[in-house]
Amino acid sequence: MALKKLLHRLTAPVEVLDREQLREFCSAHPGVEPIASVTARVPSTVVGEIVAVRIVPKRDGSPWLEATISDGSGKLVALWTGRRRIAGIKAGQRLVLTGRPSPSGPGGRLLIYNPLYELL
């Protein structure tokens, strides 16, 4: 069995290994659920890593900070209204998010407005 794991680690692409390692890290936290199993409009707590951060300009002048979170099983977007930046919210940072996801856009991506968060 150890030989099989070693062979997998030597031959698998880096992206696959990173996703597996992130999935293991996220599943080790009690009381959280994988992003892939989150249900829209039901309060949820997830653990993940920020893969992208951007500022979304709005017509009324107040920008929104948008962070895409991944846990290896799926992705969701956290959106903080009226913010240009939040200390600690940057690509590569791991965090716990709590909020009520809602489907958004043509692909039905999950979006959490102003979630509670804890940096890890």
First CA to last CA: what distance? 32 Å
Separate helix tally: 2
The 3D shape can be described as: elongated
| Structural class by helix and strand composition | alpha+beta
Give helix and strand order, one letter per element, not per position. HHEEEEEEE
Number of strands: 7
As a percent range, the share of helical residues equals 10-25%
- What's the CATH architecture? Beta Barrel
What's the mean pLDDT score? 83
CATH homologous superfamily assignment = Nucleic acid-binding proteins
Q: Can you tell me the CATH class?
A: Mainly Beta
As for the CATH topology, it is: OB fold (Dihydrolipoamide Acetyltransferase, E2P)
Low-confidence stretches: none
- In this structure, how is the largest beta sheet organized? 7 strands, mixed
User: Gyration radius, to the nearest Å?
Assistant: 16 Å
Count of individual domains: 1
Strands across the major sheet, in which order?
5-6-3-2-1-4-7
> Beta-sheet strand percentage?
35-45%
Could you characterize what this model shows?
The structure is a single chain. This protein has 120 residues and is of the alpha+beta class. It has a single domain (2-119), classed as Beta Barrel (OB fold (Dihydrolipoamide Acetyltransferase, E2P)). Helix content is 20%, strand content 38%. The protein is built from two helices and seven strands, in the order ααβββββββ. Strands 5-6-3-2-1-4-7 form a seven-stranded mixed sheet. β1 (44-56) and β2 form a beta hairpin. The radius of gyration is 16 Å and the shape is elongated. The model has no long low-confidence stretch (mean pLDDT 83).
